[in-house]
């Protein structure tokens, strides 16, 4: 009989259901933080989602200018709802809108860098929590986690877009108009409103 201690089995990796539960828990907590930030700023939860999309666009994380129609597609909102979201964000000082120099009909949305102080103050503890948790992992482990999260984000984005395209194709086949389609003068135009009228005369 050998006197050597048996080699302990390496822990089994979580299965897809366990991974799903972990990701859902993380997403839920992030959404709740976003809801709390929205409430503290007097905004709606959808406003925070729009603000994050605008911040990514302004930082160059996503290509191309941020426009109302782009937000409409990403957030699955009507044209009127997107305008209402942008109105609230502009009143709160988070964003501003401008007309494209080459096409005055096109509206572009920009994040106000100075407004980042409000978000930074609120989410600073989140960054501290991230740093504290990351300190318990090796650089190799963190690279693996980052690669996994990056691929998951890309995969879920592709799934979301595919499902929306399939739903639109099904509506087109039935001759049903997309309920988000209203009377618009162009793909990135907005209904007339006082803030744009005053700014552009």
From TrEMBL:
It comes from Kitasatospora arboriphila. Residues 191-201 have a biased composition (Polar residues). It comes from the Bacteria. Residues 158-183 have a biased composition (Basic and acidic residues). It holds the Pfam family MarR_2. Residues 16-154 form the HTH marR-type domain. InterPro entries: HTH_MarR-typ, MarR/SlyA-like, WH-like_DNA-bd_sf, WH_DNA-bd_sf. This is MarR family winged helix-turn-helix transcriptional regulator. Residues 158-201 are annotated as: Disordered.
């Amino acid at each position: 009989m050998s006197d050597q201690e048996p080699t302990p089995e390496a822990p089994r990796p979580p299965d897809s259901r366990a991974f799903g539960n972990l990701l859902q828990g993380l997403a839920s907590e992030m959404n709740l933080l976003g809801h709390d930030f929205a409430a503290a700023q007097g905004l709606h939860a959808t406003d925070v989602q729009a603000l994050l999309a605008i911040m990514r666009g302004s930082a160059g994380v996503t290509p191309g200018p941020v426009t109302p129609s782009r937000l409409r597609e990403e957030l699955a909102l009507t044209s009127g709802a997107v305008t209402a979201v942008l109105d609230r964000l502009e009143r709160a000082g988070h964003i501003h809108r401008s007309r494209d120099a080459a096409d005055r009909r096109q509206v572009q949305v920009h994040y106000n860098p100075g407004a980042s102080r409000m978000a930074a103050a609120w989410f600073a503890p989140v960054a501290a929590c991230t740093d504290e948790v990351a300190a318990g992992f090796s650089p190799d482990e963190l690279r693996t986690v980052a690669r996994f999260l990056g691929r998951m984000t890309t995969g879920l984005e592709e799934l979301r877009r595919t499902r929306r395209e399939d739903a639109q194709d099904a509506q087109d086949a039935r001759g049903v108009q997309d309920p988000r389609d209203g009377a618009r003068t162009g793909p990135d135009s907005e209904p007339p409103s006082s803030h744009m009228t005053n700014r552009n005369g």
